[in-house]
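cron nightly-structures :: item 1 of 1
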Amino acid sequence: SALFKEGGYEHLSVFNCYRYLTRSPEESLEIILEIETASRLPVTGLVNASNLGFETGEETILDSLPYAGELAAPSARGRAPRTPGCSAPAGRSGRPAPR
């Protein structure tokens, strides 16, 4: 439709860095690219839904931020989707360890 061609839509990709199929930003990117190819719609933003179910705590979320930042980086896809809040807080680095 004309709406999609004009870019008047939001195509959000939801990721969870604790899922067994997306333990690395590269694995998440691969899935995102597959979805973009199948839908023929570029992803316009990312949603960090990283959690460990009932075991999820503040650290779980904070530990996922470097992964989110790496996935959102322009170098990951040649362009950066709009991803507010996908940068690591001061003093945090590295990928979260599987739990």
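cron nightly-structures :: done
The first helix runs from residue 2 to 5.
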